[in-house]
Design brief:
This protein has about 550 residues and is an alpha+beta fold. The chain has 17 helices and 18 strands. The structure holds flavin-adenine dinucleotide (FAD).
């Protein structure tokens, strides 16, 4: 079993060894000098130390769990699996969005659960849900705690006490059916542990979101996450062959591999249900042989529209590589500045010499059997060249692969230095994508402008489909130290309104949570919301399952 990183309360985690320097400067070792100068100039940012309050000073209200409820939970699960100590509660307070981290850094843990409970089996989980239903206790399933949309906010309109249902005791491989390429996994299992278990059999599940050090299989299913192998093993929901959902009304076994036509697909109701219908207690996943070869390389386009057109062309010919990641000019420039060093300098020089300025960087990767990889790569490369792309070689792509899980650690550091750092994402058809891109950027720039300075809005496309692609935006701005939460809420509202109006989806992979639910009706219509409410009423008649997320008030 690989060593699992520990959850932390006010950030993603301690920076990996070797990246901190004892200079007293929160950004030492995080930003190159050039990147720092760029941010100061562009954002009007004054680098300053804005450290979190000490953990001991985080305000935590006393648990509101009634004594008789505590006793009943202990009787069901055992005393060691019902925790009300300060640390357990703080560690399950909310998720890891910029707003979550701001609150915890300011010492606010008002969204902490009254207790943390750890069921060990499906039967125990079902009994727990029935008990909580009877006692009027809200349950919030907790996987890795990496939600970025307020999925763990634990808000209840009736203000009932809430418990976090931590799935950490159900975190192992339960069955591996090699001939059927299928593994059955406990919901609390994290990606690295699962990959290691499968790797021993020469298999992989290949789902690699940036949060993979902490996020769990149950969380992936509950949010319909998307990994970095954009077209290869992109969407987690496409890997799920079946699952078990424990609800207050009973247990549902969903999905019938390999395929069935027995009515509408109820599995689809559980995928993306974000804990509102019950707790996912088991997941059956499709697995595949570990790729024999993996080839990654970088390309450059002169402009963003040229890059989009080339990806669209690849999609039309069914030639999208397993990984595609096209950065716009702002993201490309920022990445090169952040990377620094001789390699980045040489790359900038070579792009300029070819008339690409800094261009728009495209990273592509192919994985699988050597002959297939070779053939797909050759065909795709020819279309990329036709689209005006210049091949940069492997180094830039290998560097991205090596550092791709580092951004959340960098975010902690940037927050320490007085910056607003957040991301948002959407998807749109190929025809709508350029308009969605412009609309979201303009809304963020307008709402986060301060004293004549605009935020840095960096975008990339990371998941391609025949019909369109996802769009991921990262925002950096000088933080408003007086009203930081309001500052981001205003920007997020403006960007969400704008991208929906332009034809984007509310979310391509982060899910709805508490943050997006005011807009859900715009995406699925009033009747769609009523259908979801009716299903919830049947499975969770007392409305105890994560009531603050997904469904609008
Ligand atoms: C730095 C960072 C990078 C990220 N990168 C990506 C990315 O690349 N791709 C992506 O898709 N997302 C990404 N995310 C978002 C997040 O990691 C995903 O949504 C992930 O799937 C959540 O998994 P989790 O186990 O942490 O779930 P949690 O955060 O614990 O829970 C998420 C939601 O699912 C519910 N839930 C969790 N487990 C269960 C269960 N067993 N049964 C029922 N409901 C459950 C919770 O109640 C909550 O509403 C990122 C987040 C961060 C902070």
């Amino acid at each position: 079993m690989p060593e699992q990183p520990e959850l932390t309360i006010q950030g993603w985690g301690p920076a990996p060894a070797g990246t901190t320097e004892p200079t007293g400067d929160p950004l030492a070792g995080t930003l190159t000098k050039a990147a720092r100068r760029h941010l100061v100039r562009e954002l009007g940012w004054t680098p300053r130390a804005t450290p979190p309050v000490p953990v001991e000073e985080i305000r935590l209200a006393p648990s509101r769990l009634p004594e008789e409820a505590h006793a009943a939970l202990v009787e069901l699960l055992g005393a060691e699996n019902v925790r009300t100590d300060r640390e357990s509660r703080l560690l399950r307070a909310g998720g890891k969005s910029y707003l979550d981290l701001l609150r915890r850094r300011e010492g606010d843990a008002s969204d902490a659960p009254c207790a943390v409970v750890l069921p060990g089996t499906t039967e125990e989980t079902a009994a727990l849900l029935a008990l909580c239903s009877e006692l009027g206790i809200v349950v919030v399933p907790f996987g890795g705690g990496t939600s970025v949309v307020g999925g763990l906010a634990g808000v209840d309109p009736d203000d009932r006490p809430a418990v976090a249902v931590d799935l950490g005791r159900m975190a192992s491989v339960q069955a591996l059916d090699v001939p059927s390429s299928m593994v059955t996994v406990g919901p609390g299992m994290r990606g690295p542990a699962l990959e290691q278990a499968l790797g021993r059999e020469g298999l992989t599940f290949g789902h690699l979101p940036q949060s993979w050090e902490f996020a769990t299989v149950g969380g992936y299913a509950a949010t319909r996450s998307a990994g970095q192998a954009s077209t290869g093993v992109g969407r987690f929901d496409e890997l799920v062959a079946g699952l078990t959902l424990a609800t207050p009304s009973g247990v549902l076994e969903l999905g019938h591999p390999p395929a069935t036509a027995a009515g509408p697909d109820l599995l689809g109701l559980a995928l993306g249900s974000e804990g509102t219908l019950g707790v996912i207690t088991e997941v059956k996943l499709r697995v595949r042989p570990k790729p024999a070869v993996a080839v990654y390389e970088g390309w450059s386009f002169r402009t963003w529209p040229a890059g989009l057109a080339a990806l669209q062309n690849l999609a039309r010919h069914d030639l999208l590589p397993d990984v595609v990641r096209l950065s716009d000019a702002d993201e490309t420039r920022a990445n090169l500045l952040m990377a620094g060093g001789a390699g980045a300098k040489a790359l900038r020089g070579s792009l300029k010499a070819r008339g690409h300025g800094e261009g728009c960087l495209l990273l592509v990767g192919w994985e699988g059997l050597p002959d297939l990889v070779r053939a797909r790569k050759r065909a795709a490369s020819s279309l990329l060249r036709d689209g005006g792309a210049v091949r940069l070689g492997r180094r830039v792509a290998e560097s991205w692969r090596a550092h791709r899980f580092g951004a959340p650690y960098t975010r902690d550091k940037l927050m320490d230095g007085g910056l607003l750092v957040e991301t948002l994402e959407t998807a749109a058809t190929w025809s709508a994508l350029p308009t969605v891109y412009d609309a979201a950027r303009r809304a963020l720039q307008a709402s986060l402008s301060r004293d004549g300075h605009q935020p840095l809005v960096m975008s990339h496309v990371s998941h391609g489909y025949a019909t369109g692609a996802s769009l991921y935006l990262t925002v950096l701005a000088d933080r408003d130290d007086a009203l930081p939460i309001q500052q981001w809420l205003t920007a997020k509202r403006a960007a969400t309104d704008a991208l929906l109006a332009a034809g984007g989806t509310l979310t391509h992979h982060h899910a709805v949570g508490a943050d997006h639910r005011p807009w859900l009706e715009r995406e699925i219509g009033p009747l769609g919301v009523e259908v979801l409410r009716a299903v919830k009423q049947k499975l969770d008649p007392e409305g105890i399952c994560n009531p603050g997320v997904l469904l609008p008030d």
